[in-house]
Design goal:
Elements (H helix, E strand, L loop, with lengths): L5 E3 L6 H4 L1 E2 L19 E7 L6 H12 L4 H5 L8 E7 L15 H13 L5 E3 L1 E4 L3 E4 L3 H10 L7 E7 L5 E9 L9 E9 L2 E4 L9 E4 L2 E11 L7 E9 L9 E8 L5 E8 L5
InterPro entries: DUF1223, Thioredoxin-like_sf
Pfam families: DUF1223
Protein name: Thioredoxin-like fold domain-containing protein
Length: about 280
Amino acid sequence: MARRLFACFGGKKSSSSTSKSISGNNSAAVSADTLSGDGPVLVQLFSSQGCKTSPAAEMLMSRLGRGDFDDQIRGEGGSGSPAMVLVFHVDYWDYKGWKDPYGSSQWTVRQKAYVEALNLDTMFTPQLVVQGRSQLIGNEEETLLKSISEAPRFPSPAFRATFQRPTSETLQVSLTGALKMKVDGNGIDIMVALYETGLVNDCERGENEGRMLSNDYVVRKMEKMCTVKDVTAKKSVSGTAHFTLWDGFNSSKCGVAVFLQNSSLQIFGTQSFKLPDEI
């Protein structure tokens, strides 16, 4: 894709110009009687260390992930986990002089799929996608909290997770449990993401030259565990995801996020796990 279709956005704009919803039926893959629940809303940030306005969005994600806005999102008498955060570093800003160490063309492809679903003209950073259904510029705090509060919620899957290290370079994540929602014949993908927090880099070139950059909830690996069709809410589903680990892997800084998505990348349920210290 030509570079002229990329943009790096920041500053304040009205929600009407920055928030747009994905059209279509939210129940495309699950039964209508399961379109409610108290599971977390998945917030995805598409970001880059090569974008001048991304660090502010990354800070917002760090605060969201650690629960700084939970009470505002829940409202009076609310409960449950308001949000689950995943940050995808794209690679299309690498040409500007700083190669993002966490950037991947895989995440650029994922962002492009959302851009197409939303009928947008431009790929930009920082971009937030809420529950796979609406998007906004990544540093607009008030619009984000409103989007999370208004997003559809679904039951969290009831997976049990086991972790193994077949070799020193690999991690195996096995899941077993009920999805807690009925899936129709259109099917739904069970995605497993391995993320890392507490990342700090001294940026030596590019738009953020001279800045110390901090990143949390950065997706390092992601796999589709399986696709399921025509299953009941109580039926047990099992599968395994295999990850090749990176140099310096530290289980204490990592976690696993599981989420269900349809062919339009709309999200229908989320669950997260901490890695055991001994893994």
